[in-house]
Amino acid sequence: MVSVFDENDNRPTFHEKIYQVRLPERERRKKAEPIYRVVAYDQDDGPNSDLSYSIVDGNEDGKFFIDPKTAVVSSRKAFAAGSYDILTIKASDNGRPQKSSTARLHIEWIRRPTPSSVPLVFDEPFYNFTITENDKVAEIVGVVSLQKNPFPVWFDITGKVL
């Protein structure tokens, strides 16, 4: 029997080099809340493709932290409308020698709009999407659409594991 081991010849790759998000201002929280998730992938196999994430620049005041495995950037701090943050996120693989790459997360904090009294009209009365544990991260799993609305739409995505 011959075993072939993967050589760590690929560095992690982010889907984007610069992620730009606009988020509503928010007050200080007791519990950290997610801000954004940056995702990288590595074409190697095994441990060479296991990634860990860190914030390497733009977090000198410690407002943000990142989950090293899920790449979710979170914070408990307050963010005022008109402020702007730029973070450099690093993805490192577990290979030898270790390889890494970086992407930037630009966060623009905007004024939270007042709720509209105009009801949203969705194109479908109900949406249901299914994903499997093998689906790749950052793949589209469904599209929710609504009829034209003159106001910004703020939403949360929730779900349950069956």
UniProtKB/TrEMBL annotation:
Q: Pfam families from the xrefs?
A: Cadherin
Subcellular compartments: Membrane
Q: Supply the alphabetized keyword list.
A: Acyltransferase, Calcium, Membrane, Transferase, Transmembrane, Transmembrane helix
Keyword Transmembrane included in the entry's annotation? yes
GO MF terms here are: acyltransferase activity
SMART domains membership:
CA (SM00112)
Q: Which domain of life does this protein belong to?
A: Eukaryota
Q: Where is the Cadherin domain?
A: 15-121
Which lineage do the record's taxonomy fields give for this organism?
Eukaryota, Metazoa, Chordata, Craniata, Vertebrata
- The species this protein belongs to is Ataeniobius toweri
- Which PROSITE patterns does its entry note? CADHERIN_2
Is Ribosomal protein found in the keyword set?
Answer: no
Q: What is this protein called?
A: Bahd acyltransferase
